[in-house]
Amino acid sequence: MGGSVSCCISPGESPKIHRRREVELDECPITTAEDVSEDTGTYLQHISDRELPDELAQESNPSDHPRASTLFLNKSQTDVREKRKSNYLNHQMSPGLLTKKYSSCSTIFLDDSTVSQPNLKSTIKCVTLAIYYHIKNRDSNRSVDIFDEQKHPLSRDKVPDDYSVVDPEHKLIYRFIRTLFSSAQLTAECAIVTLVYLERLLTYAEMDICPCNWKRIVLGAILLASKVWDDQAVWNVDYCQILKEMTVEDMNEMERHFLELLQFNINVPGSVYAKYYFDLRSLADDNNLSFPLEPLSNKRAQKLEAISRLCEDKYKDLCKSTMKRSVSVDNMAGIKNSHAVLS
Question: For strand 109-111 and strand 293-295, is the pairing parallel, antiparallel, or unpaired?
């Protein structure tokens, strides 16, 4: 990943591994004479008993398990409830002009964003909003020195004294991420993977994204996501062309620490990716951040119909192949039974 240390060898343990080992030592059952079997002579803990805590931890981690709720959606619920309450109290006021388009019998509005091809601009806005809620509704200010902007500045400009106190505005976060994506020509899928890595970092390292570290955490997540997702990844030196004052050595060191804190787990299952995509759409709906809608034209309707027909044909072919496979299995079973009767 652009560093001198191999991604297969970690020079040190992440905090989560160290704490997990301490917990395992504390919770290790004490074997008494009554537990020792007379036949075996020794007590051996079953491997499933040792792996169960890790599986439970994985299910509670949204970046690893598809059933766990995303962190950013939970962080945003407080503000969403306040907005709904305010709208309810002011429901007698005139709503004014409708800003959202609605489909009718004569006109159908569709957006061009799908889980396989999300809209770039809207996805970046949603990811930016998720990071904004992470910072605003954080539990504490736990951080790691490598991400501290005071100790590792991104520019030669003096860092303000209140850099660790004042929360960044949504527009500031959006401009920072949009500049990186525009200059490096990154895709919308990379933005979703960036959010997955960010929440995985916060969970694994048990830290918070706050005003003093949000830029370097976001930069590290984008750097890693672009290398994992894109076939032609952007090199670390290319990001130094975007962030003029940042050195390649600093970029490499930050990437190594990011990977170590992730425990080198850069795999993103399709189910987790889809969950983050739809939760980002839910976040957009809760904050009146609608995806761009366009009226359904004849050309686009024909294209959708062709795609639907193609999917239907693939489904029919799959069903036919499945039926042929099941028939051949039944025939083989019948032949075996006939041979058994004859013998």
Answer: antiparallel
